[in-house]
Amino acid sequence: MGKYFFNETDIRSAWENVLTAFWQRYPNPYSTHVLTEDVVFREVTPDNCLLSRRLLTKTNRLPRWAERIFPGNLARSVYIVEDSIVDPNNRRLTTLTWNLNHSTLMTVVERCVFHGERDRPVWTRLTREAWISSGVFGLSRPIQEFGLSRFKSNQIKAMKGLEHALSKLHLSAAQSHHGDASKDTSEKAKNLTPSSSSQKPQEFV
Amino acid sequence: MNSVGEGCTELKREYDQCFNRWFAEKFLKGERSGDPCTELFKQYQTCVQKAIKEKDIPIDGVEFMGPNKEKPGS
Question: ipTM value of the model?
Answer without folding.
Answer: 0.95
